[in-house]
Amino acid sequence: MTDHAVIASTEARTLRSYAYDPKFRGIFYQVLTLLIVLVVGWWIFDNTTENLARSGTASGYGFLRGRAGFDIGQSLIAYTSDSTYGRAIVVGFLNTMLVAILGIFTATVVGFIIGLGRLSRNWLIAKLCTLYVEIFRNIPVLLIIFFWYKGVLDSLPQVRDSIALPFNIFLNNRGLAFPNPIWGEGAWLIPVAFLVGVVATIVVARWARQRQAATGKQFHTIWTGTGLIIGLPILAFLIMGAPLTFDSPIAGRFNMTGGARILPEFVALYVALSLYTASFIAEVIRAGIRGVAKGQSEAAFALGLQPSHTTRLVVVPQAMRIIIPPLTSQYLNLTKNSSLGVAIGFPELFSTTSTTLNQTGQAVEAISIMLTVYLAISIATSIFMNWFNAKMALVER
Amino acid sequence: MNTQNLSYVRSDMLNAQPAPISTRTVSGWVRTNLLATPKDTVLTLLAVVLLIWALPGILDWLFFNAVWSGSDRSACTTVAQGGIQPEGWKGACWAFVGDRFQQFMFGRYPLDERWRPMLVAALFVVLLVPLLVPKLPRKGLTALLFFVVFPVVAFFLLHGGVLGLEEVETPLWGGLMVTLILSFVGIAVSLPVGILLALGRRSKMPVIRMLCVGFIEIIRGVPLISVLFMANVMLPLFLPTGWTIDNFLRALVGVAIFASAYMAEVIRGGLQAIPKGQTEGSESLGLSYWQTMRLVILPQAIKLVIPGIVNTFIGLFKDTSLVSIIGMFDLLGIVRLNFTDTTWITPVTPITGLIFAGFIFWLFCFGMSRYSAFMERHLDTSHKR
Known about the structure:
The complex is a heterodimer of chains A (397) and B (385). Chain A is 69% helix and 7% strand. With 397 residues, chain A is of the alpha+beta class. In chain A, the strands form three sheets. A four-stranded antiparallel beta sheet of chain A has the order 1-2-3-8. A two-stranded antiparallel sheet of chain A has the order 4-5. In chain A, a hairpin with a 2-residue loop joins strand 2 (169-172) and strand 3. In chain A, helix 10 runs antiparallel to helix 12 (363-392). Chain A is globular and about 75 Å long. Chain A starts with a helix and ends in a 5-residue tail after the last helix. The relative contact order of chain A is 0.12. The radius of gyration of chain B is 29 Å and the shape is flat. Chain B folds into two domains: 22-64, no CATH class; 94-379, MetI-like (MetI-like fold, Orthogonal Bundle). The mean pLDDT of chain B is 84. The two termini of chain B are 41 Å apart. Chain B is built from 16 helices and no strands.
């Protein structure tokens, strides 16, 4: 009788103890979550297919080969309205990359200057830089884009009263028109020379570092490198007999003919993104430099390093460790914010994709392409910056 | 040892000396802060030249040449453009802002019903102030009122349709009101959802972790405008045929999803900074997972990341302006709508409107960042260096 009771109670405890077993509970919760996600996902999928079938939209990516039929004002590759939707999206992607890369470069330079300016002992400079940061950080970037777009467009003259700048460059409300370089025969040697210059510089830098490690002798890698990278292409240019002519723009009554043109939309987007992101980068730089303990530079001075060497060899490498992670996210923000070009009609990725969507009605496909491209850009940037960060990170021995 | 006659110890104190000239006179201040080195002098001169070059023009445009009163475009256009201003006149058209101020605040909300958004705004301020001032007691109750009761009351007040209130459809909502509603909902939703996502991302259960990581990284990897666009275009597709979903609600969903992903990363930063001993300690006391999180980990983690949370709020507040691209009339959207209004179409209207909208955005964001700095000092319980 007592034996029975003992057995029964242990059986009951083992059953109940499952509910309190963390492992079992973990599996139960995960299966439950997965189930809910799958059910909701299936429900959404089912609804979507039904809705699409009802509206008679064909699914699949075949539409990318169809004729786009819309014009794009600025394109890095050949594009006409007879090109395909796929090509239109590629044009948008390239324009996004153009704005992003130029913007990142400018924002970093401006941000660096403003960030250092805020740390300056000069009261006026520090206050002006603070003013800049506080203004741009607290206003939506979309508003800044509109501000430049309206400001730039409104203050620029019509085509017939274009502002003529040197070298046949014209500025008017249709944008900035400048001579289009046309490369003649033998121009291929110039990029080759440039690449040779880059490779040679890397080799020289490596040799100089090894020699300095071995003998302590310094070598002016910067000047040699600059000479190689700039000098070799110029040499190639001269050897091939200057194979370059220009197609200059001519100002007509209503429009410019010939030459190349930068859209005012591009300028507005590029300037707004650069100035906006620069205010964030300035804060990142400032935090990074202030994050380096004062003792570091004092110790460097005590060792007899010059101020410039102290900055370059002691402060900046340590500040970079603090700066790089937030800087990466600022770069990504700038790239993602370039999608706001759609608001002023700049043909970037988002804009060309949504035009495609509106014309074909292929909502799911168009949005999936756009999301994938943006995700790919984000992931590629993160991977590169993580690699760079790991290279700069403190090696603890 | 003779301690009586230490002749080298001073018996009377020296008189206090005046501070060095460099720290007490204006010229000393100028010399140390503006002209310390030749480089500084050059920089100061450049800055002064820049100010002299730019400041008078800006001030003229903003204030001295600006038009402050008027009822239509003639007040802000030159004679050649059909107005009353002299040729070559350039200045801000504040008359336009004054004329359209109500619209900038409430959008196309019916004139007779505008006491409703104003009442909601008053309620908002009355509830927000006790929440923001650290000294005032009963934070829990106020927070409950603010985040649970207030949204319900506000919704019924604004939307109407009950208790004899006239129904006001969301397409009529607009202006600063929409901007504030979008950011409030974004904030109120993103905090709890962000906390759950952050906890999920640090969970030991692989399925839950993967789902949270996937959600956070996908949303953070794409621009907000594409999330809004997706909410706008895809949400109706996802729902069964026949279900309609309000445009305003779509924007709300987009903003909330986006803000939650960013909030999750901020909270995760705080969670990671809490030493493992805290979890182990509370587990050894017999607290369950949720008790550990609620009573021990989260209070410390959230306190650590308050600046980050406020920065996310500021970002969210600014980002709500993007709904103007998907055809809604928030503050920026309504200002842009007025650019094409024939009553006020002048060359200076767009810039004036944008500067006004920018100033409003700036006021809110700057206020939030100042408050964040204040809270950071207030909550800093560590030893001061």
